Amino acid sequence: MHEMGIVASILDASVEAASKQGAARITEIKISVGELTEIQEFALDFAFTAMTPGTMAEGAILTVNHIGASSRCVSCDVEFEHGRFEIVCPKCSGFLCELITGRELSIDSIEIDDAPLDAKPTDGDETNEDGSNADTASGAGE
Amino acid sequence: MEIDISKPILDRNERLASENRALFDANDVFVLDLMASPGAGKTSTILATIAALRDRYNIAVIEGDIASRVDAEKISAHGIPAVQINTGGACHLESDMIKRAINALDLASLDIIIIENVGNLVCPTDFYLGEDAKVMILSIPEGHDKPYKYPNIFAIAEAVILNKYDTLSVFDFDEPEFRQVVHSLNPTAPVFPVSATKGDGIDAWAQWLIARIESAKAARSLSKGSDVS
Ligand SMILES: Nc1nc2c(ncn2[C@@H]2O[C@H](COP(=O)(O)OP(=O)(O)OP(=O)(O)O)[C@@H](O)[C@H]2O)c(=O)[nH]1
Ligand SMILES: [Mg+2]
Ligand SMILES: [Zn+2]
Ligand SMILES: [Zn+2]
After folding, report:
1. Which residue among A2, A31, A85 sits closest to B91, beta carbon to beta carbon?
2. Where in the sequence is the domain holding A13, given as residue range(s)?
3. Do residue A107 and residue B4 have CB atoms under 8 angstroms apart?
4. If we measure between CA atoms, which residue out of B121, B152, B116, B147 comes closest to residue B131?
């Protein structure tokens, strides 16, 4: 399985695009996965959960747009959807067909946020708290 | 805020594969990516193919393995240049590995490169390396039901080699059913029964490969001709 490598590529492209926009974090990553690729969604989710902590995409949602398989018959130009098996033209029963969709593996878009994850509103209220929090704040500043 | 990215996830692999492709085109080298399970007979098939084609073509081999140089040494022993790639655990070859391997080869003197991919029926299908054709090998002991379990590799291969055909009588391999499922997945792919270690059936496979190599060369010289004019 190479889902780790896939997630690494997704993260690289997302972080690069988000940084360019000056974003603080990524909240959602949208990808498309064709039915005829060898990508297992549970393995993808697993790798995503394992690899995002500590990156801009920590806590982000991975949204997968599934794309079904379809082909065009070379003889009669009919386009049709199909599964992995029996890729046969429904009109002429010909089997010389060109794949149109099903092998996609692309990163479509990301959703970004300007506020970093560790600067959520609740963290901004340090002045209301007493001594121990001030220590943490100064510690973090070093 | 939403930012549009719209690019292939394996962008880097595809980009480097196109660079490999450009190098192969410039040197008029035909590249075959051979995929199969561990032990299906990739190295044996490569050796048999070399024996059938070496009078006609200058051949080199790129051996992909998770570890060891064993297969490259088997090829070198026959006087054929062989580069070993150790993927260090990765279950498939990627185009950057091929890029590094071809640095070690004299492309200008070659007609064919055969790549032995890592033994795996799943991953290699998602990675374009810059090759002209992907071909897969299934061996009789693996069983005729493999195309049901690993449909993708049968679907994308241009041809299927059915190896260890000499062991057919020992296993309950249902060849008609196998051919029928392969046909339903990939109607244009020929199936070549061979015994790589004995040489049986290699002739038909080699004839197919020669025709495929020559048509690729013809297409290349056509497109080069049109570039000039
Ligand atoms: N009976 C029989 N045995 C074969 C045939 N082809 C290969 N073998 C045997 O199968 C074993 C594996 O063959 P290899 O050619 O090394 O297979 P491979 O796919 O390169 O193996 P890995 O690189 O280790 O994944 C060896 O012991 C071969 O002798 C064949 O046609 N018939
Ligand atoms: Mg081998
Ligand atoms: Zn892999
Ligand atoms: Zn039709």
Report:
1. A2
2. 3-68+102-114
3. no
4. B116
User: pTM of the entire structure?
Assistant: 0.84
Q: Is residue B82 part of a domain?
A: yes
pLDDT digits (tens, 9 = 90+) for A30-88: 999 999 888 888 899 999 999 999 999 999 999 999 999 999 998 999 999 998 887 88
Cβ of B122 within 8 Å of Cβ of A108? The answer is no
Question: What's the CA gap between A13 and B152, in Å, rounded?
Answer: 27
- Give the Cα separation of B30 and A79 in Å (integer): 33
Pocket of ligand 1 (CB under 6 A): B 36, 38-44, 71, 119, 163-164, 166-167, 195-197
Smallest CA–CA distance, residue B118 to chain A, in Å, is: 12
User: HEC states along B166-184?
Assistant: HHHHHCCCCHHHHHHHHHH
Q: Which chain A residue's Cα is nearest to B13?
A: A9
Check if the interface score ipTM surpasses 0.90. no
CATH number, domain of B150, equals: 3.40.50.300
Domain count within chain B:
1
Full residue range of the structural domain in which residue B45 is found: 11-131+144-154
